[in-house]
Amino acid sequence: MRNIPVDVSALTFVCVSPPRPKLVNQDTGEVKTDRNGQTVFTVGLSAADPMGRVDLLNVAVTGDQSVTIGEVVTPVGLVAFPWEAVLGGEKRWGVAYRAERIAPVSAVPASDSSAPAGVA
């Protein structure tokens, strides 16, 4: 699978759903882990561009993140990757997102190129 780096410099991100463990299986409640055995969490973010367009993203990240709903954040090391699967005989596809971490904007140094534009 190809990871596509996402330039977040012109976007403002707000946490819209708190970190929650990502499930491998809804029925059994099995929690997804990474190669090192750490729990993978999903954080819901809104991404707004300077034109006012807003998209909602679910971003996977290893380890629990210290962010709360309504907090302005930066997804550090954000990548997108396309996926496709056949589920119940139906072909589905989309784009998933993963980040190294989700950092409150107040914790991201101003010189960090991944900080949202206009936010320091």
Architecture overview:
- The structure is a single chain.
- This protein has strands at 4-5, 12-21, 23-25, 30-31, 40-48, 54-62, 72-76, 79-87, 90-98, 101-104.
- With 120 residues, the protein is mainly beta.
- The chain has an eight-stranded mixed sheet with strand order 1-8-9-6-5-2-7-10, with no helix packed on it.
- Strand 5 (40-48) and strand 6 (54-62) form a beta hairpin.
- It is globular and about 40 Å long.
What keywords describe this structure?
120 residues, eight-stranded mixed sheet, disordered C terminus, mainly beta, two-stranded antiparallel ribbon
The percent range for strand residues is over 45%
Oligomer: single chain
Q: From N to C, what is the helix and strand string?
A: EEEEEEEEEE
- The residue ranges in which pLDDT falls below 50 over 5 or more consecutive positions are 113-120
**Strand order of the main beta sheet, please?**
1-8-9-6-5-2-7-10
How far is the N terminus from the C terminus?
34 Å
Q: What's the helical proportion of residues?
A: under 10%
